[in-house]
Amino acid sequence: MDWSQVPTLTWESAKLGILPALFGLIISVPLGIVCVRFRWLYGPVLSVTSVLYALPSLALFIVLIPYTGLTDTTVIIPLTLFSLCVLVPNVVDGLRSVPEPVRQAATAMGFGTMRRLARVELPISVPIVIAGLRVAVVSSISLATLGQLIGVSSLGYLLIDGYQRAFLTEILVGGGLIIALALVCDLILVLVRRLLTPWRPRRRRRELPEVVADPVAALAGGTQ
Amino acid sequence: MITFEGVTKRYPGGTLAVDDLNLEVPDGQTMVLVGPSGCGKTTTLRMINRLIDPSSGRILLDGQDIQQSDPPTLRRGIGYVIQQAGLFPHRTIEDNIGTVPLLIGWKKDKARDRARELMRLVGLDDSLARRYPHQLSGGQQQRVGVARALAADPPVLLMDEPFSAVDPIVRATLQDELLRLQAELHKTVVLVTHDVEEAIKVGDQVAIFRPGGRIAQVDSPERLLTAPADSYVESFLGFDRGIRRLSFLAASGLSLDDTAVISASLPAWEAAEQAQRNGEPWLLVTDADQKPRGWVTGDELRSLPREATAGDAQLSPYGHTFGVGTDSLRAALDATLLSPAGRAVGVDDQGRVVGVTSYERLGAAVEAAGPAADPDAAAGAEPAEPATEASPTGTA
Fold first, then answer.
1. Please, which residues have CB within 8 angstroms of residue B375's CB and are 6 or more apart in sequence?
2. What is the pTM of this model?
């Protein structure tokens, strides 16, 4: 097998995993805020994101090909839509996790609505939003491999090529790399969360925020 | 000065939370709003910083109708303390305290300096400045809440059941701290509580609400205890009104007996004779610094060998003392009731014995203060500063 393509394929897979989650986040934050502000909207929005998630990805790729061609965009759009199904509820739950006394204190201190959102409510939502982002990134990395079927390259190439050539090593290498990539992305998000939320109580109480010395243990302990 | 003029708040659905409220909170005073739950006291408080807007009527802050001010701007000039402190979990203690200064555009360094100044004021150690709220105890968090409310030095401070989420011992400490702060800062404080003892302890004025959002009586704590307006107020104040009123009479009004006080170095036989001469069953033995050591009976002294001094006798503990210059008649009475000798020890601010009480002397002091039933006579009496209404201190 041709090892020289592995770095490129890994990079493509990472891009197809991370970009949809980021775009999904950009859509979910304002959508979530609106859903918290207007409670009646949340039900319908949830229904729509669930229906979107139920759509087969391959079908969506095919529908999009006439408009966006055989490009990354054709894969990124459906994966972005899928990510909304976890991200919108997490943004909403995150905002709702802000304790009422905290919200009330912020208002009474003289925060206007926007400032309160930016300086109090969103920062406090970060842990829950990042938990959603981890699911979105990992699932996008795995779903993106299907893009290979319409010729959008990723680590999925190794799986399909290996299957067509009945070459087990290539399939195992492809699968292993996909899992490794997902774990690395997940770990990075755990680290980002730790950096952004030094204020969170630790399960094991320590005086000061500690640097993660053992990434594997951190990953194992960081599931939520 | 905060003025409520015919303020009514009716919630959608028709619940009448506050009904035609007229109330004045003078500058530099603590006004406590107290009443059962659902009486509109919290609604009243929240209308002052426009967390709730009234359905009708006007609220004036120093003569300005608050409906005409922009809510966030209005709120930055009014400190607010709530029950669970409501600290921002994602900000350090110093940044929590600096919230309003930063909002009104102070530089970060200046806000942090101010935060540390306030931490000292409310009795928090500097080392906590970089901690996060979850690392503090409930009492410490509440102190941070008070510091945060005071950060931009607002003239008005609103406190919504500020001490009800902490245990009774911490609560008593925080109440004392509030009295100390208020004696120093002279803010216009409006405090909501359902605890009538707290109201009487910390209020310059107390407004008792009845269900349905109407005020039953607004008066000084002493006058409430002396002359409740009606049976509702009377039952709300609870039992022991007469005893609690003694909190407002200074122990300095007591004439104390010093003939029952003897030095530990006095020969026992001489002390025994002195006891007999005065007809005193108990004598208080003091050490060389005039600090109390304990009670001794004439019989005990007589049973000692000839060369013994009073200090050699078996002494009974002297129990609680009370500060003659600082405590109230209530503290003196309480200490007397608890003493094995039926007499309590009055001490000066150095802890030196001034004299001892007796029930006769207590009775005379209460009588001199005027009868409880006559509000005018009671109002004429010199009330003890509420800040000095501490429980008896200085246990043996």
1. B223, B226, B227
2. 0.78
